[in-house]
Amino acid sequence: MLLAFATASLYALSTALQALEARRTPPATALRASLLVRLVRRPLWLGGTAAGLAAWPLQAVALALGSVALVQPAFGFGLVVLLALGVAVLHEPVGRREVGGVFAVAAAVSLLGWAAPGSTGAYTRAGTWVVGAGLVAVAPLPLLLRLAGRAGGLATSIAAGLGWAVVALATSLVDASLGHGDWVSAVCWGIGVGAASFGALLAEMTSLQAWPATRAIPIAFGLEMLLPAALAPALTEGVPPHPAVFGLALALAGAAAVLLGTSRAVAKAAVPLTEP
In the predicted model, what is the mean pLDDT of residues 73-90? Predict the structure, then answer.
């Protein structure tokens, strides 16, 4: 859990730094590699990228030690970090929405600590194929959305959330391969993670370029937090010991993503140039 919280904090910092620069890029670069080409020249964006790169190994270790059904929802702590930044640095007020979101994160993580499987469990053959197909599907999503003329905030926010969700599941497969000493599979899954991360990052930057953070963050964060946890029991042999409580905890994590993700304080911390 400590590793999950540290990972969430680094990812929150990464989002804040990267999104600030993304909002300053021309809309014509949406869903194009040229968007990242422009951003990679900016020190602030590179700082955010460094934070994201530092977060991934911590995420991998957290997933190796605990269940994906516990680690990913704990990423809601990243929204709490953004809230703290908004309050401490930008002096944004804290209201019932923010307090409710913090309590929802705390309650969800506490319940998942009891109701989620202790470990991810071995992936079934079908589960492995589903994750592999997911990687193949999400990597080219920005290109497909651009060809379809869907460069708006909703489509790209969903694409970003799906991309990061699949990256989390594939990261747990990297862990499993390393645990079995299967270095070839670990490298192959790692390449898939890299390709999917590129697509997810491009979609995320475009969503924050096109949409206010109060609309983009809840969707992307919510999918990244909840989808891997919800799919894990169907993809692996790790069955939740208390399914009803597990479902309740995921619902609370989703509520936290909505409450905190739509908060002005969180939005201002993530993207200072965003609309309220």
Answer: 77
**Sign of the CA dihedral running 134, 190, 48, 86:** positive
Instruction: Give the integer Cα–Cα distance in Å for 261 and 268.
Output: 11
Question: What 3-state DSSP class applies to 159?
Answer: helix
Question: Whose structure tokens read 């955010």?
Answer: 48
Report which of 27, 249, 44 is spatially closest to residue 156, judged by C-alpha positions: 27
Calculate the alpha carbon distances from 101 to 80, 83, 214, 248, 261 in Å: 8, 10, 14, 15, 9
Burial class (CB in 10 A: 0-12, 13-18, 19+), 93: exposed
Three-state DSSP state, 167: helix
Report how far apart, in Å, the C-alpha atoms of 139 and of each of 13, 75, 201, 214, 260 are. 24, 22, 10, 25, 28
User: Residue 276 pLDDT more than 50?
Assistant: no
CA 159 to chain centroid, in Å, comes to 11
Category of 181 on φ-ψ map: left (φ > 0), alpha (ψ -120 to 50) or beta: left
pTM of the model: 0.82
